Amino acid sequence: MLSHFDGCTLASPATWNPEAWAMTLNITVASRWLMAQSSDFRLTGPGGTASKTSQKQVVLQYMGWSGLVCYTGVARFDNHNTAAWLAEVLTHGPGHRTPEEVADRLVEGGSAWLRAVPPGMRHHTFTMITYEDAKPYVYVISNFEKPNESPLATPADRLICTRVRVRHPRCLVTGWAPAVHEDQREALVGLLAAVPEPSRLREEVAKTSRESSSRAEGTVGQSCVVAHLCPDGSGEAQVFGNMEEEFLPTMITNGHNAASRV
Asked: With a threshold of 0.85, does the pTM exceed it?
């Protein structure tokens, strides 16, 4: 299910309590000339932190477009591992996929495995950014949050994709949105409007993500990866903070997982 929206602000009313489930967050800043996206590495389980090196972001490269996909919500449940599943569902035989086709697979496949998760624990969002014909888009694929709408306390039983056409600088926080204050979002939008160097934007997004850690009850890690994307499809990912092991981003090029040996 694909819906269209022109805004880029997620409401965070006082009645919404993200402490009811363990959830991290993703920060996306987008404009016609530059976009960036953050994802931390912390994986939280019933007993506390289960991993500090969890992979939550994927780079997509196709003829004609490039993109980034990240997620917040359910990382593991029983035998399901979202990072492994994400790499698998985005990998395919030689050929082309459009951003809409990628989004459809995330909706269909994600909805299927999320139904096995208890309703109170299945809050989940994928966020994808792309430049399509040099036009910036943000895809919010979620069962509980949409741009410019209050998040649902009880998530739906399937994911819904909202495609956002970015017409001026925006900041979108998915997941534990209240951990990023409004003045921080405005600062990122102001910086983006000033047309910064990509490295400067990455640094400021990482700083904002790090500062949100203290407000998220231990579910957002101090370390994160921030990747930027330019209208010509080029970009770069940078790790901020101390990692316990080497980080190699998952990259899907024309359907092939560059990390796969097959």
From this structure: yes
